[in-house]
């Protein structure tokens, strides 16, 4: 009240006018109950009865009162509000008659309007008809789209109701859809709000997204949404080796491959430098039955080819070649080729005049199983070998004159389809080449009749022609019945090439995903790679520390730890081998205190065999000298026989030695240890033993004939003694022939080990 008293009269007047305006705006246009003369508790039957009476009374055609038309509108409006339960409840609660806000809610003088969130594109029934036609569900995608993607690529858009960016690409998307459907590309739309499972299956985690599907594989579009880039994206989905470039130099090779590929060949003549997308898409759809080539008429190296086939340069021309490479079997020429026309043209020329049965699928298409009497088809089959080329050419020429749809001409090679030929040749009662007529029935059954031995003569053609004429009037001439086995797939070896191509395509996809940072799509692959690396790293660590775990009490300096070489393929660091003598001076460093993992390869020799054995030893171990864990030494048995015997005596297990006596031995030095090689592990106190084995060409018998030792020094036996010395030298040289193989087994760890409680003392190796 104090605030009102402080206002001057003019301000108070404006305030009252403002309140009157607000009250006028908040007041409803009309009161439906007053207009109809009803109470707020009136029933629907009452409202309907009163409305009919008042409508008749105030209808402008019957009531000539000037205000009748306005009254009739009020009555109709009132009935519209009260007859609708929602509108009536809205009026009863809030006094609102505005149809644009029929569902307002009042909470403490705050009106929450649900219509604010009702965008035009939020209602599913108001979507564009084209999107409803192309909408995909998970079941439809798995059962229809994925199998169909092996014949044509699909372009799929990922969208949602709350995606404002999706509205900006709609005009471009509509234009692209119109162009792509004319070319035969499949279109799909996935709404994330309704098909979250399908979106996750496709790997689409954001909207809008556009992806391509071809042969069951998904590719994402990563560029700005434009018509040209989307057309280029669809073209890149197709295989790169789909259409071959053909010119004057290679057209004979291209057309002549019909025999190897067992397919007709298609040539498109056009003046554009790039292969049209329509032709690529059609080639992808029919690639299992046809081979495709493109001739650029704008190039000079294709002029002879255009003259040969009399090509019109003003319109694209399609030629189909079968067995005859000099004359096309079919031709079509149009200024504006359409996809349905091209598909029909290719479908009518899917097979050669006489195709070869290379697998069961081709056999099922050429010779289908009989279903109805009027749809029966017969196959004329030639069983031959690759050597009978003249008879095969005559058979193909005879097949090219066939104009009957119910008869198909085919042939097989007996060598490649042996099970089939054995059944049809009546267990070798007939010999190839042989012509038969057959009709397939259900459950693998077939009715057939051998016609004649086929050599391509005129008489053979008359026999076949007569049999076909009798077949039209009397199908019962097919008197033999049998069950056919499955055909061998002659193109199964091509699987390796397909696997290589698929691997290359997969690697390119991985690289593309990495470059475009599609980390969510790459997570399964990255997880697999890191798991493999973790397992590999763990295996290496376990192997590296497996030996050191046995010697936990000994601490090894980091600089002294080295890795043991597993193979002998390491490149030697020097072109010579360092071999030191094992004596009392080098005994401690070269044996007793060898570092863990190191071994000393010791050659046992004598004064007489020193030069020969050292040379051979260096040659055999040279390829292993690059390893830092191997050391090479020699032991003179003439000086250190005491140490050698002590070493053999202290072994915990008996060391098997079966050595022969040598000519340089003395009575107190038996047996002869020359040529023995020992791998001494100083840290773990064990040795591995190599026993010399003679592998020379000279036999032991000849050695016995010529003598192996000198029994006398007489002049009569001087010549025989010389031969004996030569033979002994040769045997000594071949003692280490198998040392390289022994070294390989040593590094692999497969040799038997002989452990010692301790190495013989240094006094045993001191020179006597």
Set down the secondary structure blueprint.
Layout: H1 2-6, H2 9-26, H3 32-36, H4 44-58, H5 68-83, H6 85-94, E1 104-107, E2 110-113, H7 129-134, H8 138-148, E3 154-159, H9 165-168, H10 170-183, E4 186-191, H11 196-202, E5 209-214, E6 217-220, H12 227-237, E7 243-245, H13 251-255, H14 258-261, E8 265-270, H15 277-285, E9 291-296, H16 303-308, E10 317-321, E11 330-333, H17 339-347, H18 360-366, E12 378-384, H19 389-400, E13 407-413, H20 418-424, E14 434-440, E15 445-453, H21 458-473, E16 480-483, H22 495-515, H23 519-546, E17 579-581, H24 587-592, E18 599-605, H25 610-621, E19 630-636, H26 641-650, E20 677-681, E21 686-690, H27 700-706, H28 718-733, H29 739-748, E22 754-755, H30 762-765
Parallel strand pairs: 3-4, 7-9, 8-9, 12-13, 17-19, 18-19
Antiparallel strand pairs: 1-2, 3-5, 5-6, 8-10, 10-11, 12-14, 14-15, 15-16, 18-20, 20-21, 21-22
Brief summary of the model shown:
Its main location: endoplasmic reticulum. This protein is an alpha/beta fold and about 775 residues long.
Q: What is the terminal-to-terminal distance? A: 135 Å
Oligomer: single chain
Q: Quote the average pLDDT.
A: 78
CATH homologous group name of the largest domain: Glutaredoxin
What would the CATH topology of the largest domain be? Glutaredoxin
Radius of gyration over all CA atoms, rounded: 49 Å
DSSP summary, beta strand count: 22
So how many helices?
30
Q: What structural class results from the helix and strand content? A: alpha/beta
Total domain units: 5
Unreliable segments of 5+ consecutive residues: 1-7, 99-130, 549-569, 660-665, 697-716
Shape-level CATH architecture of the largest domain: 3-Layer(aba) Sandwich
Bin the helical content.
40-55%
Protein name: DnaJ homolog subfamily C member 16
Function: Plays an important role in regulating the size of autophagosomes during the formation process.
Transmembrane segments: 525-545
Signal peptide: 1-26
